[in-house]
Write a structure and sequence with these properties.
Blueprint: H1 2-23, E1 28-34, H2 35-43, H3 46-49, E2 54-61, H4 63-66, H5 69-79, E3 84-88, H6 102-107, E4 112-114, H7 118-127, E5 132-139, H8 144-156, E6 162-168, H9 171-181, E7 188-191, H10 193-199, H11 206-211, E8 214-217, H12 222-238, E9 243-245, H13 257-266, E10 267-274, E11 278-287, H14 296-299, H15 315-319, H16 343-346, H17 351-358
Parallel strand pairs: 1-2, 1-7, 3-4, 3-5, 5-6, 7-8, 8-9
Antiparallel strand pairs: 10-11
């Protein structure tokens, strides 16, 4: 049965590639916004299957990669405070900050623990009432509802030693920034599937309306991505850009109202610091005033050294789609998964890590 399913996938994939070849009559530049799409595209050789007229670029859709050095430095400084336990997702551990990393700080005896959910962090807070437990809250709209639920749970259960360093970011505002920068001319965007499962398709409607750029929300299987590319190429060829959903098993136009309600209750929109772009107004989330007692920024005083960027690292340019990992002089020569210079090589959804592991003729 598995063989039959795989055969059908190959057959359908071939038909989608043929359709793209038939539709595409002029150069088209598409961006897969989500890091998960970049990895899936590279792992499955999708770029090699597409006709020469279709160019795929990686975007900034990796929450680890877009976390600025200043915020990584802050996470490390919090971890070095007495009687503090910092909890974080595993991808953050090896990301270099200005002077160190969470992994190095843990080797130097800071209490830093990898968790797989906010519930793990809450349990650590329950188990360690004499210590302050800080959850490093990175992520996009996908992660925000789970952090909001944890804050509400901490309030309900009176877990007073639980805190969040809120580094959450929003996708549609940064898409607007990329388009306004005008550094690259895009014809279409493969919109993020998991984020869209939360926010729906309507928040992207300004993109075709104001910028004439096609949008298709994609899942993460090879067929999902090929279908999305075919739909984007068809929009571009017809000259009728719009927002379409190619991931209907996971995304509704209105999104997940319950998750959105949690976000609205706990967070308010704020500025956010994006690697390679800087501080962008109204592109992040912070805890509302009624929940600011859980805000690590408010609860702890730390001293910060000047922020430094790694010499030669072009992660910021890669995240904006201006350059590829192959353009980086450090790629493969100095920077590797074992010795990462920048976050794009650390994260499981980072473009550099994907090029390193799956790339063909990329440096």
């Amino acid at each position: 049965m598995k063989f039959i399913d795989e055969y059908r996938d190959v057959e359908l994939g071939g038909k989608l590639v043929a359709k793209i070849e038939r539709l595409s009559t002029r150069p088209v530049r598409l961006m897969e916004f989500c890091g998960g799409h970049t990895v899936a595209t590279m792992r499955n050789g999708i770029r090699q299957l597409l006709p020469a007229t279709v160019e795929m670029l990686s975007g900034p859709g990796c929450p680890v990669c877009v976390t600025a050095n200043a915020d990584i430095d802050k996470s490390i400084a919090l971890a070095c405070l007495p009687d503090v336990i910092v909890t974080t997702f595993g991808d953050m551990m090896k990301v270099p900050g200005s002077y160190s990393s969470l992994q190095r700080a843990r080797a130097e005896m800071a209490d830093i623990r990898i968790v797989y959910s906010t519930q793990d962090a809450l349990q650590i807070a329950r188990d360690n009432p004499a210590k302050s437990v800080i959850f490093i809250g990175i992520g996009f709209e996908t992660t925000a509802p789970t952090i909001a639920a944890a804050v509400l749970q901490a309030e309900q259960q009176r877990i007073e030693n639980f805190f969040v360093l809120c580094l959450l970011k929003l996708c549609p505002p940064i898409m607007k920034v990329l388009l306004d920068l005008g550094e690259i001319k895009l014809d279409g965007i493969v919109c993020p599937g998991h984020v869209s499962a939360i926010i729906g398709s309507r928040p992207y409607e300004f993109i075709p309306r104001d910028y004439g750029v096609a949008c298709v929300i994609s899942g993460f299987e090879p067929l999902d991505i090929l279908l999305s590319v075919a739909m984007l190429v068809e929009q571009v060829e017809d000259g009728k850009p719009k927002v379409e959903i190619a991931y209907r098993r996971g995304v509704k136009a209105d999104g997940n109202r319950q998750a959105l309600g949690l976000m609205e209750k706990v967070f308010e929109v704020s500025s956010a610091d994006w690697r390679g772009i800087g501080i962008v107004p109204a592109s992040g989330l912070k805890l509302r005033k009624e929940y600011e007692r859980f805000d690590a920024d408010q609860a702890f005083a730390i001293e910060m050294k000047p922020v430094r960027e790694a010499k030669g690292c072009i992660c910021g340019d890669i995240l904006r789609g201006v350059k590829t990992p192959a353009d980086c002089k450090l790629f493969r020569r100095v920077c590797s998964p074992e010795n990462p210079v920048g976050p794009c090589m650390v994260s499981s959804e980072g473009a550099c890590a994907a090029y390193y592991q799956y790339g063909v003729d990329y440096g």
